[in-house]
């Protein structure tokens, strides 16, 4: 199993062919990739992401009066996940782009920041 360090995720449970993974790592520039680099590599490998406007439209589905509730988004996306590994990955990504209001406890997902990170 690959060594997992802070900021890096272990993607060994995706059941990808070894040659595909090696090619993806080469295109990423190394033996270890962070999650954003993985998204870029996956986008190149699997045909890219939706247009920015489509992503924004998708996130408006979750947009409430105080913004996107991170807990609601996490729960909704977790329902789409087929395995515990996918649910954990969804949770990690949502948490990475969610800030908690220290007074109210409300967790707001920053869709703009997420979209910018995917575009880079």
TrEMBL record:
Family annotation (InterPro entries): EF-hand-dom_pair
Lineage top rank: taxon: Eukaryota
Record's protein name: EF-hand domain-containing protein
Taxonomic source organism: Pichia membranifaciens
